[in-house]
Amino acid sequence: MSTAQQPDPRDRPARLAVGVVGAGRVGPALAASLQLAGHRPVAVSGVSDASRRRAGLLLPDVPLVPPAEVLRRADLVLLTVPDDALPGLVEGLAETGAVRPGQLLVHTSGRYGAKVLDPALRAGALPLALHPAMTFTGTPVDVQRLAGCSFGVTAPDGLRTAAEALVIEMGGEPEWIAEESRPLYHAALALGANHLVTLVAQSMELLRAAGVEAPDRMLGPLLGAALDNALRSGDAALTGPVARGDAGTVAAHVAQLREHAPQTVAGYLAMARATADRALAHGLLKPELAEDLLGVLAGNPHGAASGPGGPGPHGAEGDAG
Known about the structure:
Strand 1 (17-21), helix 1 and strand 2 (40-45) form a beta-alpha-beta unit. By secondary structure, the protein is an alpha/beta fold. The protein has a seven-stranded mixed β-sheet with strand order 2-1-3-4-5-6-7. It starts with 16 loop residues before the first strand and ends in a 24-residue tail after the last helix. The chain has 13 helices and seven strands. Helix 11 packs parallel to helix 13 (287-297) and helix 12 (265-281) runs antiparallel to helix 13 (287-297).
């Protein structure tokens, strides 16, 4: 956690006029954080009704204007649009002359580094890639969550100090990501966060089907402990039937999922195989128990898969122990 103190805007005048292009869940929250640090939001662009509501909630009294007008009014522009829309937006703003020399142009895409801003750089803008490693709701709670949030930062060497300062003013912690590593960095975050939401939602659906009235209450302490253990200990935190090599239990899981929630089977098998691989590699899953388990995961409900050499040492009875 950063020990840097948040600046009090009463101690000095606002320094930068801030604009937001794309009033999704991220942009208004970042602009509101910069406002707390003493900067001055001056313009927002948003098309949908939801975007306009978010802007009104987080940036009240800040006018909604077209993107080109945002750039005309702002010293620091946050480009907070979907990844696929970012290159075209940057090219269009540069080609129409909307970009001003010396203007700080910041995008928040995890996928891209600073090079996607090259058209604006050629027009004299100062390019920064600042990606908050956080999930956003589009509500004021997002501003609070930025405290201690890591930002994946990519910027030219001459702008490193400016990038660090902006992240710290938003309450975050800068983490430098090389330009060529941005897609891998973003894939890692998506694997951990986006897929987690899918897994939790599926788990709650299955618990409801099993008769649990409050699946969120049941899962909260369990998932909180699992996450804490994983962050502290990595693979050493693996538990459950796959890590133990309980092939019979896993086979029962698969059978129940095929009957009650067939759409979850592929994901269960994929994650179970990945878990088995990691448990084996770290000595948690005993090799003598792994064969029956891997047989179940390969589609043999009775355990060990038959290969060219015939059944494994446990035969086809699936007695994984």
